[in-house]
Amino acid sequence: MKKLLLLLTLSFFSIQANAGSCPDGSDPVKSISDDGTYFVYKCGGSAPSSSETSKKTTTSVKVKPIELEASLKSVGEFDLKKLGENKNQNLYAISVHGETFDINQDGHDDLIIPIASMNSKHRNVPNEFSKPALLFWDDSLKKYKVDKEVQKALPLLYWPRRIRSSINPKTGFTEIFVADMGLDLANYDFSKGMENLPPNCGGQNHLITFDPSSGKVAEIALPKLWDVSHGLAAADLNGDQVTDYVVLNSPYIKYPAKCQYKGVDYTNESYILYSNKTGGFDKTSIKLNYEGYSKAPSIQSGEVIFDENNQAYLVIGSEAGKGDAHLYLMKQDSKTSFTETSKVKAPAILKTVGAPVYGEILVADVDADGTEEIIASSNTVDESISKWVGRYIQIFDIKNGKLLERPDEITQSPTSEITKGNDWCHHLFFNEQSAWNEPILTCTTITSQIKTKKTSFYTRNNNMLQQAKMKFKLNDDIDNFNWMQSFYPLTLNEQTIFVGRQLTGKKIINGEMVFNSIKLYLLKPPAKNIKPVKPLEPIKKVGEAANTFDGSYALIIRTEPTDGFKNIGTAQFIIKDGKISVVRKYRWLQTSAISSYDTFEGVIDKEGNINASFELNPIRHMVEPKTIKFSGSMESLQLHGRFDEIMFWDNETKKYVLDENFYTSNYDVIIDFKKEKY
User: Fold this and answer.
1) Peptide bond into 561 cis (omega under 30)
2) Exposure string for 600-628, b = 16+ CB within 10 A, e = fewer
């Protein structure tokens, strides 16, 4: 009876927290727990909220999803079996993971579609390889298309698990890192033990480059090394502006004697590929120092995040096995070492049907305050069917090296549905802006909409991520959407919309129906709902500096059109006696050296009008930094400038030159800011 009363009491407080107010109508008071691991919300001296990280699971209240008006447009159909170039006709082509990125740097996102081969029992087959597909957006045709020469030059892959894309600012090339985990054992019969299954020998990772000026594909040589890379993180960790790669492994290669590595090595250890001065990468083994573990956990996901002091951390998600799944925060001690500073358990409800897994992690600025948060998606292994099921998404802050959950800022599915369904998140994406004029979190799944009760979309309203669903007017759109899966956000014509896919190309193999092709659709709002981009403010005359607005302000820097990054920098203004500068403590800049912030100078008058200047390169190309003039106001909480007459580095003349053929002749650079209390 005491347990029942406690559960009812906790449920009551959880509902109150989700409602955003206390019984007397006042707002709850937010504080940090005694052990510093979670937020506590109190109403007039009441007991702590039930939403405690790793201690209790938030009670879910069924909330009607927000509706987003949308329409569909077909933008291409592609035979993955043909594009993958796998010749075994007893196998079919499947694509599970994917990525969007502006590969050819024309201002429109392209698609990276990895392909694997499966038999009629829906099992990945040993030593069968396929090429990935790169699909380029053709804005004149308004469709995706294949470049035959590019496709021909791509490498063969086994089971591509993780993909990270970036632009190397020194070469101007697009870089696509593909972590190939080797044989996937899903749908195999584990009842007779791992030793009786085909051995997982891992796969060779690849770093593909694309030269936008020539349209040619090449590869940067990586160590000849096979591993089962479940986790892949990407960030500039050595400060040279080039992306480094953290490859996170666990001991999945259990029987190396059964493998044929053909002259290459294998590893079960984690490592970092640091960029070097010759344009290649140096492999550096890393040590992950867990607290209180004689045996390291099994890694499933990972990301890099920087705190307010620009301290790098690894965020690692594990699977439970026979214990608990955890989310770990690992502080970087050196180039070769990371040490655990905090961890949280996966939600307890996931253990009711099997072993929990933190399968996906995203780092993003959810609340647009200039500081990135951690979004972690967990699910569970249903022991009755040996498959991943369910979904539970959490948001975390980092405070003094601790993970602090924000359970009141995302709605969960009803409790009865959390541990059900093959709709766990294969990928997470967060877009601060979208064509629906709403920030949107996307959980990409491989389950058709008609087969799941969970939505793939969450919009942020009233400081909370709430489930959202697409609403269509045409019956054809409704029917097509019901059979769609794998939604990815992408930017086309300066608008962030979505692409989804249907399975097509039906084939019968050994009496089993399979599919070799995908048909792509764009999801976007009706034309009347899309708002034009805000024009630049006219430059106003600014009077003498005044201390009217002195204080600290969080800032985010972005460009229109975007150049692959939604934000290129975050920092903090300090205004003193009307003079504006950037504080040294809270700085991050993706496209230029951090020291560029030292060039920022600004002045604000008593009316709130602002003029400023800032020397930087705001795009991901090797171009000459220049001093950009900004103007804005306290009324708009924005500074606008223009980066034009763009000068590119010419290797032949060893000078910066004007490229009149570059697709974007200028970029609007926008600094959004807001007052903070420090």
Assistant:
1) yes
2) bebbbbebbbbbbebebbbbbbbbebbeb
How far apart (Å, rounded) are the C-alpha atoms in residues 323 and 315?
19
Q: How far apart are CA 41 and CA 55, in angstroms?
A: 15
Which residues touch 365 (CB under 8 Å, ≥6 apart)?
371, 372, 373, 432, 556, 567, 570
Which DSSP category does 530 fall into? P
Question: Per residue in 181-240, pLDDT tens?
Answer: 999 888 888 788 888 889 989 999 999 999 999 999 999 999 999 999 989 999 999 988
Beta-bridge partner residues of 211: 216
Buried b vs exposed e over 118-149: b needs ≥16 C-beta within 10 Å? Answer: bbbeebbbeebbbbbbbbbbeeeeebbebbee
Q: 3-class DSSP state for residue 432?
A: coil
Please tell me the pTM assigned to this model: 0.75
Q: Report how far residue 569's alpha carbon sits from residue 438's, in angstroms, rounded to the nearest whole number.
A: 21
Which ranges of 463-558 would DSSP assign to H, the alpha helix? 475-482
* Strand partners for 396: 374, 405
The whole-chain average pLDDT of the chain stands at 85
CA-to-CA separations, 615 to 370, 379, 591, in angstroms, rounded: 20, 46, 12
> Which residue ranges in the chain fall short of pLDDT 50?
1-27, 29-61, 531-534, 536, 678
Specify whether the CB–CB gap between 556 and 570 falls below 8 A.
Answer: yes
Instruction: Say if residues 181 and 205 touch (Cβ distance below 8 Å).
Output: no
CA distance 639 to 629: 9
DSSP assignment string, 249-262: --S----GGG---T
Task: Give the whole-angstrom CA distance, residue 370 versus residue 308.
Answer: 10
Nearest residue to 378 (alpha-carbon basis) of 318, 305, 421: 318
360 contact partners, CB below 8 Å, separation of at least 6: 301, 317, 376, 377, 425, 426, 427, 428
Tokens representing 668 are: 């609007």
pLDDT tens-digit map of 556-601: 999 887 766 678 888 889 899 999 999 877 788 888 888 899 999 9
Whole-angstrom Cα distance, residue 151 to residue 442? 28
Contact 267, 293 (CB under 8 A): no
**Residue 105 near residue 87, CB atoms below 8 Å:** no
Cβ 443 vs Cβ 456: under 8 Å: yes
Neighbours of 464 (CB within 10 A): 17
Written as one letter, the residue type at 146 is: V
Sheet with 271-275: strands ordered across: 231-235, 244-248, 271-275, 281-285
Decide if 614 contacts 628 (C-beta within 8 A). yes
Is-contact 90 512, C-beta < 8 A? no
The residues facing 210 across adjacent strands are 174, 217
Query: Alpha-carbon distance 415 to 424, whole Å?
Result: 15
Burial 480-514 (b: 16+ CB within 10 A, else e): bbebbbbbbbbbbeebbbbbbbbbebeeebeeeeb
Question: What 3-state class would DSSP assign to 2?
Answer: helix
CB 493 within 8 A of CB 56: no
Q: What percent of the chain is helix, strand and coil (3-state, nearest 5)?
A: 10, 45, 45
Residue 221 CA to its chain's centroid (Å)? 26
Per DSSP bridges, beta strands 244-248 and 271-275 are antiparallel
Quick one: how far is CA 672 from the chain centroid? 22
Please state, in angstroms and rounded to a whole number, the distance separating the CA atoms of residues 382 and 388: 6
What are phi and psi for residue 354, nearest 5 degrees? 170, -150
Residue 280's nearest CA partner among 179, 345, 209 is 209
